[in-house]
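Form P-L/3: holo structure prediction, ligand LLP.
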Amino acid sequence: MKFKKNKLYIENVSAENIVNKFGSPTYCYSLKKLKENIKNFKKNFKRINPLICFSVKSNSNDYILKEIKLSGLGADVVSMGELLKALKNGISAKKIVFSGVGKSYEELEYAIEKKILLINCESESEIFDIEKIAKKKRKIVDIGIRLNPDIDAKTINKISTGKRENKFGLTEENFLKCIKKFKNNKNLKIKCLSVHIGSQICSYKPYAKMLSVINKVIKKSKHIFEYIDVGGGMGIKYSNNTKSLNYKKYNSLLINFLKKNKSKIIFEPGRSIIGDVACLLTKVLHIKKTKNINFIILDSAMNDFMRPALYNANHRIIPSKKNKLVNNLNHEFVGPICETTDKFGNFSKFQKINKGDIFAILDVGAYGMVLSSNYNLRAKPAEILVKGSSLKVITKRQMINKII
Ligand code: LLP
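OUTPUT (holo model):
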């Protein structure tokens, strides 16, 4: 994404062109950026040769998943829907891990049927269900057990997953109990210890703590884990103020860890692969000036992109065409939905804005379209993939008659 002669381009196509052709709001992905991110992720951890399982919950578009498959990545899934999507797009079952606190009996049966790499269990009750199915089918099922390492990932509270009070994984005590109990089970093979401490983590320090807890627990368990699944969570730069995660440090922590434990590392990245690959193009419907606030009313809303309303997340908003700067006016970008939280950002310095102007909300590739809904009976946006100068509709704009 860059400006050429004051106009915003996604690869070789101007944002204006895309909106004129496909309407708005529209999610717009750059294939080049996606490939770059995958390449960089692989490069960052080249020395440890990990299995990289893309977290499908962050983006489950078929075309994106096809690209994920082509680049050799596996998938981290959390539901029957995501498992079916990953398989449908050609991702090998042997590269799929299944996480989640509440897998149903049917979901477990299907995952076992498909012989996926690992089912990462999050409760003893779930392990019992797997054992029951395995017995019935006379199979030996490979499982992981998710440890709750009781670590504060120092991220947005609402997306922290590794603290004792979070519902995820098993506490150290229960984890060790389960290892003991199921270690020699005829129908189960405990192959993996998994963790995921949260999302949008921008410091290597929580990962360092996480690895030292894992080390301690492995020693106590006296069990050899073929895999250590360290989850995802790597943060991205949503603004110039966001700190970048030091991948070099994280990598060297893992290298040290592997000196003591001869396991294969599994990653489950979502945001770091797809987050900054897409923007949401949107148009100004109305401008409403009040004494203190200049409301910029967009044609996109929290149903199209939920992160600001749900987590108070800040996303940069940039114009498709540069204009003169206006100071000291409180611009508030809002959507048309009847909720006060339906807003995308506040800026005291912004360029002059006119009705009909097009803007791009940045870094919406992860947890963007997947969280969209039909709230207020609004149709869902389109998704476009840009490849050089060519454009491909990868999700058609939802027709209003489909929801009426
Ligand atoms: N593995 C597990 C078990 C997870 O729960 C998650 C995300 C991931 C991997 C991928 O994490 P990532 O690399 O994308 O950080 N909707 C929120 C984020 C929720 C994350 C849920 N779990 C947001 O928009 O910030």
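COMMENT: DSSP finds eleven helices and 22 strands in the chain.
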